[in-house]
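Annex B. Sample input.
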Amino acid sequence: MAIVNERDKLQRVLGSPELAWLIDRIRNRLERGIPLDGTVTLVGATAAQRRAAARLLGHAAGGGTSLSVPLPALEQALRRAGISADLRTAVELVSGPVRDLRAERTAEIHARATAVAAARNCLHAGSTWYSAWLDEVSRDGTVTRLIQRGDGQLLGQAAAVLDHLPALSDPSGAATSSQDIGGMLLPALAESVTGNATALSGTPLASLVLRALAIRDGAAAPVTRSAERARWTAAGVVADDLASQVLVLNVRAGGEPLGRWLTEAADAGEPFRVTLHQLNAMPVVPLGMDVFVCENPAVLHAAAEALGRASAPLVCTEGEPSAACNRLVYAAARSGSRIHWRSDFDWEGLRITAAAIRRFGARPWRMGTDDYRAAVEGAEGGPLKGATADSPWDSRLAKEMIQAGRSVPEERMTAALLDDLRATSG
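Annex B, continued. Sample output.
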């Protein structure tokens, strides 16, 4: 009851709006660890503020617009009146506990160091891309914001997620099993690392991991759902096995019932879509000796229109290959099919093609220097954008692209591609 009475007295004496500035100044000094042995001054004080301070100190209100309050004198006045033993007690009773900013800063620095140390305990800690990611999130305030929210553990969890990604487990990038090319579902990954199946679905943890993957892939940090799926797919993870699809033409396959459906579509010369869920539930064995892979659905559509049943088996990645696409192509390569792969003549296209060569032993299809020269001469390609990439199957290609500075979408080469599909099928 005594505390309540003391608080009531302090509220009557110090709790008026005219003295709010004074309470704020004292609190600020206490939080920063500055002794209360000086004077605080308010420039531009109103008459009401001067009268309130005068009543507090027991003297007449002065004139002018500058108001100064000696803190030792204020403390003595409160003590003489039996209201409070010291200014700290008074401020805390009026406006709540005083923070210790110095201790908080020390704790924050320690928590930051702990979080970064946990992130460095990662299989990829020596990788250039991983170091770049950790430097970036440390410099731009991301780690500090995590610490201040009480989420510092997310940095170490992000490192653990990266350690569990199938496509990052083998530095060579070669596919050794169906899991390596897109078999891990995102909820299963989240559950195995964090114990929460939704921990990587639109969360701060997911953003941390996706930023790291974007840096690794030389891509921009994803800002759309499709861009996020592309990054997960490139890392060997599937966000949704029903949304992950692959568009094909004339891919005959064994296996019931999906293999039969594919074969029936091929007999009719009709394009067909397959989901990863179907490929997981109903595994197939593609039967073509040569399977061609293109990037743009316009090419597959042209093949269906111009060649129909006469086209060689054709798989379309529709940009970054989906997990379903990778799974089907992997099955074809395992069954003995020769994989012929091409992408757009841009930096992302070079990265995708190089990955296909590593993963599936694919053969570049019209992806050489001479092909680029012919394409760029006859097409109005846009400027090359983004981080450059190598062309390990043809070292001259990347150099030629840098010199020309232009990209060429593969649909500009449709006529030549259809000739290949027709000749192979015949």
